[in-house]
């Protein structure tokens, strides 16, 4: 990749080592990464870490909403607080995406030239059909579990179902906004190699952002309540089947680098 730089960038050596490993892992050569690529990968690494923190906060918030409202009169205050937390987390996720977009914009402004044929990815290239089916079925399963407990449960189980459904809807809104951002994000590339790297990064962003970890965790909130035995069995089965499906997709679906080569080669 050609040597370019962002004014005032100066990434730490650990970021350079990470970028070198990333290039080798995706078959993009053994050369030193440009400061542009290093900066773009570094911000994505930080955003993934902060995104994991946001997911943990959502799970903790759902558990606390059940703990403070799942006994006695099931007051609506904890659910309202959880709804406010969901809005705040969606806003935080939007700000993280804006951070990536700002770094990419700086990288694009520093390019001496731009790729002649920028690639605009659709959702099929971005996620791929197997991942899209996995995400859709996971959302459907999590929502069905919450709705079934709400319909047939009572007391604590019904209250916990409301908590789960609020959190599931929040996750869905956050992921939809993130995918929309990825689809609209402009390409930052000056040659075939950097174009390949750009496509791979966006595919990895999409797959990482739609990992069903939180959706597997949320139904477990009800296990701490008074959910009926059949629901507990269905919830555990949902998690087990989801993990098996995810592992299968990971092994059988083409990797991000393979999809990127197909997309770039099609131009």
Attribute tags:
membrane, elongated, transmembrane, transmembrane helix
Question: How would you describe the overall organization of this protein?
Answer:
The protein contains 11 helices and no strands. The chain is mainly α and 267 residues long. It has one domain. It is elongated and about 65 Å long. The N terminus is likely disordered.
**What count of helical segments does DSSP give?**
11
**End-to-end span in angstroms?**
20 Å
Category by helix and strand content = mainly alpha
- Alpha-carbon Rg, integer: 21 Å
Beta-strand content estimate: under 5%
Largest sheet: none
Number of structural domains: 1
Uncertain ranges: 1-11
Q: Would you report the number of β strands?
A: 0
- Large-scale geometry: elongated
Following the backbone from N to C, one meets helices and strands in this order, namely HHHHHHHHHHH
**What percent of residues adopt helix (DSSP H or I)?**
over 70%
Output mean pLDDT: 81
Gist?
This protein has 267 residues and is mostly helical. 75% of the residues lie in helices and 0% in strands.
SSE layout:
Layout: H1 13-25, H2 35-69, H3 77-110, H4 123-126, H5 129-152, H6 156-184, H7 192-209, H8 213-217, H9 220-223, H10 229-252, H11 256-265
Helix pairs in contact: 1-2, 2-3, 2-6, 2-7, 3-6, 5-6, 5-10, 6-7, 7-11
């Amino acid at each position: 990749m050609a040597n370019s730089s962002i004014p005032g960038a100066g990434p730490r050596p650990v970021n350079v080592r990470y970028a070198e490993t990333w290039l080798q892992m995706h078959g993009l050569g053994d050369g030193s990464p440009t400061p542009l690529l290093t900066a773009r990968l570094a911000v994505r690494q930080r955003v993934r870490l902060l995104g994991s923190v946001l997911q943990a906060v959502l799970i903790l918030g759902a558990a606390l909403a059940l703990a403070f409202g799942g006994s006695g009169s099931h007051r609506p205050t904890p659910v309202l607080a959880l709804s406010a937390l969901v809005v705040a987390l969606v806003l935080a996720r939007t700000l993280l995406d804006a951070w990536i977009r700002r770094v990419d914009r700086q990288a694009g402004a520093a390019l001496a030239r731009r790729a002649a044929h920028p690639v605009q990815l659709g959702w099929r290239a971005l996620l791929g059909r197997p991942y899209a089916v996995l995400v859709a079925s996971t959302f459907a399963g999590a929502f069905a579990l919450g709705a079934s407990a709400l319909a047939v449960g009572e007391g604590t189980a019904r209250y916990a179902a409301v908590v789960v459904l609020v959190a599931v809807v929040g996750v869905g809104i956050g992921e939809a906004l993130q995918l929309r951002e990825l689809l609209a994000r402009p390409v930052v590339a000056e040659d075939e190699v950097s174009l390949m790297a750009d496509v791979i990064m966006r595919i990895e962003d999409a797959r990482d952002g739609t990992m069903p970890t939180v959706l597997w965790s949320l139904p477990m909130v009800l296990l701490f309540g008074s959910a009926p035995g059949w629901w507990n069995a269905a919830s555990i089965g949902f998690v087990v089947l989801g993990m098996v499906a995810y592992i299968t997709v990971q092994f059988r679906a083409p990797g991000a680098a393979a999809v990127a080569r197909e997309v770039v080669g099609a131009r």
